[in-house]
Amino acid sequence: MTELAATNLKKYNMYVNGEWIEPSNGEYFQSYNPATGEPWCYIAKGTAEDVDKVVHAAHRAFLNSEWANMTFTERGRLVRKLGELIAERAEELAEFETRDNGKLIREMRGQLKYLPEFFYYYAGLADKIHGETLPIDKRDMFVFTSKEPLGVVAAITPWNSPLYLTTLKLAPALVAGNTIVIKPSEVTSASLLELVKLVEEAGFPPGVVNVVTGFGQPVGDSLTSHPLVRRVAFTGGPETARHVVRNSSENFAKVTLELGGKSPNIVFDDADPANAAMGIIAGIFGASGQSCVAGSRAFLHVDIYDKVMQILVDRVSQIKIGDPLMDETEMGPLATKTQLERVEKYVDLGINEGGKLITGGKKPGGFKQGWYFEPTIFEHTNNKSRITREEIFGPVLSVIPFKEEEEVIQLANSTDYGLAVGIWSKDGARAHRVAKAVRAGIVWVNTYRSISPIAPIGGSGLSGFGREGGYEAINEYMQSKVVWINTSTESIPDPFIMR
Ligand code: TXE
């Protein structure tokens, strides 16, 4: 769609240097409501020219004394204020996101209520960021380090949790003194464009926070390869991440990647079967499986297998699928038609590869429109098929039996991903052993999908690198400067006279 049709759909421009600007080519595209499959608003289709304009604006704001000379305490105050304004508009923002990506309104209400805590956490850290004095091994030298921001940060976010995944980048980047250009997913830009309306009210100088909208090509590409971008924070798929790394390497920008996983829940024979089953269901069917930490594999010990499986199947076959804006709905649609087709393809593949379809596996009846899919469970005898190894990013669970601790550690690690692992057991020593042995950035014991601003998230291998959240994230947005001061009163000897 290159022209705005004569409709009353809402139209969003881009937020650049404190102003709402139209795209340089005047083009807009439609954003769809996954519950109906119908367009509900228009988003500005940014160009490479727009990217150049917004990065320059962010760079000017970075150098401008209004931001550059602000103390950490003052920056912390602004970040806290932004969190408070988000808390005031939480209900409205939750609705925007539900309309745009199909996530349950009740999940979004919970998320939006908690989101300000991330701003408060980083605001509280602001005046605890400091360098150190080094006990240097040379007489008459006073040496210290200071922490400095990097410059313009490019934040590229996906469609599955736009505001949460933006917050993980925005709050530490600002507290550290950077300026930021956010490119939300073309599928779900609206909630962020609503959120940035609060930036000016919070008191940030123009150009500190900017949003450029549009597609990976050309917007994402030109943003990640822009020479003035010093830091790229990316959440998305591994294929796109490879482009991002190639682009940013041209200018040696610092990069973090958060790319999803094939995370297992491991249920030992001494686990509480009902708790484990609820954890597994929350892990894979929450957000219709479109979560980076989706627990898409469940390894059940043979002695507890039938019991857990029974609870799983009973509850999953009762899940209420429906309009995500309704309070009683338990599972909404997938965010895009492409994602629905991807899930259908993987389900066919699972059947062709010999997986046993236990429940689900198709679009639910009674929906004339919208991108819905049933919660689906497969049984497998091993972890070798593609659907047990590749990220589906949908409501599809693979269940696999095991007998020994060593065996299940090997099964859990037999994936190219390394993001999250759930362990279900009453044996604390075993939980510690297994937590140490599994390859993952996050391990949950007798819980799953717990989050907090205080705890870092991130992974290894195909799940990416670097950490978001927690204190560590501050370091991802700063660099150290070391200062040497000669305190001696003696004159400096001629460097070419050997002593
Ligand atoms: O993501 P993309 P897609 C996984 C999941 C999913 C798959 C594909 O398995 O099925 O990835 O999803 C921007 N330069 N995850 O295709 O393309 C794009 O506009 C710079 C896991 O939707 O990675 C969007 O803003 N940017 C995951 C962002 O990248 C580019 C979340 C993510 O989109 C670009 C999402 C380019 N050349 C998908 N091309 C998680 N970790 O939770 C696209 N983009």
Q: What is the correct CATH architecture of the largest domain? A: 3-Layer(aba) Sandwich
In total, the number of strands is 21
Distance between the termini: 76 Å
The largest β sheet comes out as: 7 strands, mixed
CATH uppermost class of the largest domain: Alpha Beta
How would you name the CATH homologous superfamily of the largest domain? Aldehyde Dehydrogenase, Chain A, domain 1
Bound molecules: ligand TXE
Give the structure's gist in a few sentences.
36% of the residues lie in helices and 20% in strands.
Outline the secondary-structure elements.
Elements: E1 10-12, E2 14-16, E3 19-21, E4 28-33, E5 38-44, H1 48-63, H2 65-68, H3 72-88, H4 90-101, H5 105-125, E6 133-134, E7 141-149, E8 152-156, H6 162-175, E9 179-183, H7 190-195, H8 197-202, E10 209-211, H9 216-224, E11 229-235, H10 238-249, E12 254-258, E13 264-267, H11 273-285, E14 297-301, H12 305-316, H13 337-352, E15 356-359, E16 376-379, E17 396-402, H14 405-413, E18 420-424, H15 428-437, E19 442-445, E20 464-465, H16 472-476, E21 478-486
Parallel strand pairs: 1-5, 8-9, 8-11, 9-10, 11-12, 13-14, 13-18, 14-17, 16-17, 18-19
Antiparallel strand pairs: 2-3, 4-5, 6-7, 7-21, 12-20, 15-16
Bound molecules: ligand TXE.
